[in-house]
Amino acid sequence: MPKRNSPCVAFQGERGAYSEIAACRFFGNSIELLPCESFDLVFKSVESQKADSGIVPIENSQAGCIHQNYDLLLKHRLRIVGELNLRVEHNLIGHPGVALNSIRMVFSHPQALMQCQGNTAKLKGVKIVAAYDTAGSVKKIKEERLLNAAAIASELAARTYGMKILKKGIQDNPENFTRFLVLRKTQTPPADANKTSLVFSLKNVPGALFRSLSAFALRDIDLYKIESRPLHGKPWEYFFYIDFAGNPKEPNCRSALAHLGEIATFLKVLGSYPRDARKL
Amino acid sequence: MPKRNSPCVAFQGERGAYSEIAACRFFGNSIELLPCESFDLVFKSVESQKADSGIVPIENSQAGCIHQNYDLLLKHRLRIVGELNLRVEHNLIGHPGVALNSIRMVFSHPQALMQCQGNTAKLKGVKIVAAYDTAGSVKKIKEERLLNAAAIASELAARTYGMKILKKGIQDNPENFTRFLVLRKTQTPPADANKTSLVFSLKNVPGALFRSLSAFALRDIDLYKIESRPLHGKPWEYFFYIDFAGNPKEPNCRSALAHLGEIATFLKVLGSYPRDARKL
Questions:
Q1: Over the stretch A219-236, which tens digit does the pLDDT of each residue have?
Q2: Within an 8 Å CB–CB cutoff, is residue B112 touching chain A?
Q3: Has this prediction a pTM greater than 0.90?
Q4: Among residues B178, B216, B239, B244, which one is catalytic?
Q5: I need a labelling partner for B275 at 20 to 30 A (CA). Which of A95, A96, A120, B49 fits?
Q6: Residue pair A163/A96 in contact by the 8 Å Cβ criterion
Q7: CATH class in words for B8-87+176-184
Q8: Does B69 score more than 50 pLDDT?
Q9: Which CATH architecture group holds A8-88+176-184?
Q10: Which of residues 55-84 of A touch B (CB under 8 A)?
Q11: What ipTM is given for this predicted complex?
Q12: How far is CA A88 from CA A18, A168, A195, B124, in A?
């Protein structure tokens, strides 16, 4: 890996993205940031060692999973080495000096628009416009001097582009969290790892999922989450993603993985890492 | 229910949407169609009997679940009475007489854009723009006379708006299916129902999910699918959605539901309906 004075962290989106906030929260402020156009490029940047680490959102407490990143975890040879739960606060952001009642258009990522649907519906005569990015929407209305437009994004995005928060905290549900995963090109889990993520597939026979979960239940290993993802090219067959308590250095977890290996047609450990128990 | 000559079916999107194709495939062509702006309005239209039935996408073989519709199933008092698997073929659609190499912008729903990412990346010097709707994008480029723009949508959308298919089948993966659910305001399942959908939540204790699945596995009842959804306002607690083979009129399914009822903190049957075993 090329030597750097400060670690370089890749994330998806423009400067001011929620992923940038997550990166600084996890690594501190003395990092280099590598904004990437897509999640795929985040994975590729870490794989090619252009960046030391990557950080990607995997799950939102309101909208559910960011499925694309589950697929990318499967495709790329990176390991999850950490996680971070971030409270998401969306803000309505416009040009300085512009009043809320002169806003006629609101831009943001469809996910953010969905999370603010109730509150934006109260803004009369306003057109909601889907965009690729939250922070990118702030950049857009600034660069294109759209004085009657606002964007939904983070406070950091408003600061980054010298724009003004017209309305703070406009998400419909105040309990809005996103879980981020930290990725590295390594095979060694952190010493204090107490949570493991894996993916497996099963023969399509009755009771297969039940038998696979017995590998954990019979050893009193707690599951944090289960997610099924369609297998590309095989409609209605699934990969299962599981997060469990423990790490494969513990004998009972090692046994559970060996047991699951007997049942599964495919099994890949995605990483072991310290659990972020904060709800913030 | 108000008497109508032909059944009225609500769907989300503009005329020409994939949901409209699904509605005609399921009910035949002698139906009235009620296009709705949002999925929420589809549910509300059926609940208020403005429409006899509604049809909504629930899962795509590439992109995964349409989570919002899982949440709406929980919120509204409708029953699933049918399902339909539709092969999705995306097309690049432009104005008649316009050549493919003069296209500079491509509009569509982010989901459709994602499914065509590989192929649209091959179009040189083209800007990809997210929009709310596939068929709505065709309507937009027609009404705004955007001659150097194309939209990604169904063949029906091209026909509906008198536009031309510039490139047929531009999705990256030809095996692209969407499963639609048919909803009604009824408590009576169809006589030939052989598949049941339900949602439940569990105490957050080790082995809870395993014990809940035992209700099915111990009775040799096949599970088609499991999906976990975050509980709104309770970060990192989950609802589980399950589809299983059978219907509650069968004694073993009735017993499984009673057994699951002992374990679950919440349980709701969303409907029993004939399974669509077609992959096309």
A1: 999 888 888 887 766 666
A2: no
A3: no
A4: B178
A5: B49
A6: yes
A7: alpha beta
A8: yes
A9: 3-Layer(aba) Sandwich (3.40)
A10: 59-65, 67-68
A11: 0.74
A12: 8, 12, 23, 36
